[in-house]
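Quick one, tokens below. Sequence please?
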């Protein structure tokens, strides 16, 4: 068995391919244009490329088993046989059953999708029943280790840790009251022990078990479960060495628990949890272990100050038997390679580091620890100069700063809701249980081709506008024919709900190939917010005003809220997030004023990221929610009482922020509810929520078309929690990624269901 020291490493690496090769291959497989062997060939090529790049970089230890066709939590569920019967009963092959759990089929809905801690990555939520029997159902970690070994590369298989896996899972719908997945920990540990023995037999020297659930607040029972798990796994006689990784924050009380077990190494995030550095020297159990110091930021694109990172590492020397250096978390959350972006402003570019550059930073710090003086001195000096030069290049706008400084509490308040509701009812004349969509309509091949043709210069701006106006009119006519009550323009001109706005706001930089996985095959290019934010000109008004000119029905203006723009961008770290959020909010406030002046009576300000950005520790949440809610209210409070403000939230556990959702003071809140079985309505009822609610009644991330009976039943359930005059019928998210063959019947069924329940 090969047990080299960990040295310089990373906790994970991007897996979609530098040019989104995996996305394209998976989507071709789904469409039938690529067979399974072709898909697996693309995957093998991507894995080989990653392993060779990381080997050539000079890392001492490489993560393995980080590849996934969709999601690492879903991989873990499949590995241990956590496949609900409804998917097994489909009679599909292994890979198609896996994708059925992720996307659903015509017969069954997919697993619930939610945010991976406080990131913009989504995972599939495993369902565990009282009678779930864990069983090793595949060999993915072993197979990928041997695959790398055949290429001359030794890897460290990475697995979601057993306790985090169970804490992220949810009880199956038929589970008895009081049952929690963690109740089955001992049974799951049997299978982890079995897998570790198999890995040891294959020659694996190290295994990384990720336990990020413990950077959040945990009960004494959960901490005891962590201790029990790693006492048992570390006591196995036939196993590789164990590295337990906690990231996205400070492990807190879990760190001494892990230190008291016999695991060989612990990785800590000293970027999101810098306070841990003060406690580490006091934890005696660490002195028998390798401490993997996560000092290179894994979630943002700013270049590290290597001199400061090296100084921090120096303070930890002697706290552990061996000190290694790493990224703070997996590099899954950043783009591949800054070298693919030659068109970025050189002054700004010097501030950035993508995954490939962060690996280089880790390697340099590894040389610091090993005493390679000459190379290191040059690198540290260059790093410090680049950071200073980049900060000096940051854009400062004194007008924006003065406007933020002059804000008063009244700038964040609207008229009372009763007054607004009466004014909106008179202006809009909507029926009870009004129907609408969340904003986007399918981006057809013609729409994407028009955008590509404009980028390539095949058509000019006038030609592009003509095509987009034709698409807007087509979408408006379709919605009128279907019978929706509040329409949208369909957003054909938008590439992404954050990128589209960032490209029109000062203070942002943009990439050409800076793709990051959000979920499955969904990839985004987060803009980089590097300076003060302002709006040089209206961003959406001409499209929304044109759509409204085509119909007598109300059309929603569509904006992305300040919290989501920050959450789905790489954001400057040289000033408080609250100040940056207010700058963005003021730009949106001006946009809402222009939409209203253009005749729009309804404006939707989406905040799907409100919950995902919630701090993982309860003690930090009030501060966050205060500025997050305040920024939304700043953006919307300038609207007249007769202008109806909607917001939209999706794919998160909302119970913890239900008070903040109320605090947004939106006139209508549309919210994901299909995958979570309308659970949100009970939370809203519990706090006496008294404004409009649109629980999403069907899941748009699945190709499945719900029938009228299903939608009618869901709306009937919703009416029991929300009076019909405040209830809306809508999908749970935008329709951009769907096909019209799915959208048309689903929306028709929705309208029919709404009319049925309205009549009742």
């Amino acid at each position: 068995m090969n047990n080299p020291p960990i040295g310089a490493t990373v906790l994970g690496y991007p897996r979609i391919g530098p040019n989104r090769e995996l996305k394209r291959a998976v989507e071709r497989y789904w469409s039938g244009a690529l067979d399974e062997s072709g898909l697996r060939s693309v995957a093998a090529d991507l894995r080989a490329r990653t392993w060779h790049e990381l080997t050539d970089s000079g890392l001492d230890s490489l993560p393995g088993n980080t590849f996934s066709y969709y999601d690492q939590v879903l991989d873990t569920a499949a590995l241990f046989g956590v496949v609900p019967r409804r998917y097994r009963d489909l009679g599909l092959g292994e890979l198609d059953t896996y994708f059925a759990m992720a996307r659903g089929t015509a017969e069954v809905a997919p697993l619930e999708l939610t945010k991976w801690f406080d990131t913009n990555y989504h995972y599939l939520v495993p369902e565990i029943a009282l009678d779930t029997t864990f069983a090793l159902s595949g060999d993915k970690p072993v197979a990928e280790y041997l695959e790398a070994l055949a290429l001359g590369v030794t890897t460290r298989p990475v697995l979601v840790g057993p306790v985090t896996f169970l804490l992220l899972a949810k009880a199956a719908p038929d589970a008895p009251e009081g049952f929690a997945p963690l109740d089955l920990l001992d049974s799951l540990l049997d299978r982890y022990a079995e897998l570790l023995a198999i890995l040891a037999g294959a020659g694996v020297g190290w295994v990384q078990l990720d336990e990020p659930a413990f950077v959040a607040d945990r009960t004494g029972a959960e901490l005891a479960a962590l201790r029990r798990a790693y006492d048992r796994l570390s006591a196995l006689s036939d196993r590789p060495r164990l590295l337990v990784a906690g990231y996205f924050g400070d492990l807190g009380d879990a760190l001494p628990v892990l230190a008291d077990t016999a695991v060989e190494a612990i990785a800590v995030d000293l970027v999101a949890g810098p306070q841990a550095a003060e406690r580490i020297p006091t934890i005696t159990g660490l002195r028998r272990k390798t401490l993997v110091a996560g000092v290179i930021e894994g979630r943002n694109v700013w270049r590290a100050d290597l001199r400061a990172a090296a100084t921090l590492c120096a303070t930890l020397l002697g706290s552990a038997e061996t000190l290694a250096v790493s990224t703070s978390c997996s590099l899954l959350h950043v783009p591949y390679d800054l070298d693919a972006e030659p068109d970025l402003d050189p002054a700004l570019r010097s501030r950035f580091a993508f995954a490939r550059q962060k690996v280089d930073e880790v390697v340099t710090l590894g040389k610091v620890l090993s005493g390679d003086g000459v190379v290191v001195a040059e690198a540290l000096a260059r790093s410090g100069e680049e950071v200073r030069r980049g900060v000096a290049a940051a854009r400062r706008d004194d007008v924006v700063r003065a406007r933020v400084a002059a804000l008063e509490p009244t700038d964040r308040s609207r008229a009372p809701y009763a007054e607004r509701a009466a004014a909106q009812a008179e202006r809009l004349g909507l029926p009870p249980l009004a129907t609408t969509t969340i904003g986007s309509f399918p981006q057809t091949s013609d729409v994407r081709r028009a955008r590509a043709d404009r980028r390539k210069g095949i058509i000019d701006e006038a030609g592009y506008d003509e095509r987009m106006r034709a698409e807007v009119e087509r979408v408006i006519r379709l919605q009128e024919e279907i019978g929706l009550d509040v329409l949208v323009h369909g957003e054909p001109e938008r590439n992404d709900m954050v990128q589209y706005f960032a490209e029109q706001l000062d203070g942002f930089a943009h990439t050409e190939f800076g793709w990051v996985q959000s979920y499955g095959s969904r990839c985004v290019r987060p803009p980089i917010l590097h300076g003060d934010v302002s709006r040089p000109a209206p961003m959406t008004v001409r499209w929304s005003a044109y759509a409204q000119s085509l119909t007598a029905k109300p059309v929603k203006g569509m904006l992305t809220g300040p919290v989501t723009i920050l959450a789905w961008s790489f954001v400057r770290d040289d000033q408080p997030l609250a100040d940056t959020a207010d700058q963005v909010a003021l730009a949106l406030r001006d946009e809402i004023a222009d939409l209203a002046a253009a005749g729009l009576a309804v404006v939707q300000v989406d905040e799907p990221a409100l919950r995902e950005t919630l701090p993982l520790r309860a003690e930090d949440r009030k501060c966050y929610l205060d500025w997050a809610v305040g920024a939304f209210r700043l953006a919307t409070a300038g609207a007249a009482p007769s202008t109806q403000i909607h917001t939209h939230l999706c794919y998160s556990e909302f119970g913890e922020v239900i008070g903040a959702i109320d605090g947004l003071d939106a006139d209508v809140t549309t919210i994901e509810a299909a995958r979570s079985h309308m659970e949100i309505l009970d939370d809203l009822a519990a706090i006496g929520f008294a404004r409009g609610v649109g629980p999403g009644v069907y899941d748009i991330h699945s190709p499945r078309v719900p029938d009228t009976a299903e939608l009618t039943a869901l709306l009937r359930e919703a009416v029991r929690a929300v009076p019909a005059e405040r209830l809306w019928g809508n999908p749970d998210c935008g329709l951009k990624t769907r096909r019209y063959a799915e959208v048309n019947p689903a929306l028709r069924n929705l309208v029919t269901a709404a009319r049925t329940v309205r009549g009742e």
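The chain has a mean pLDDT of 93. The domain at 423-444+475-759 is CATH 3.20.20.210 (TIM Barrel).
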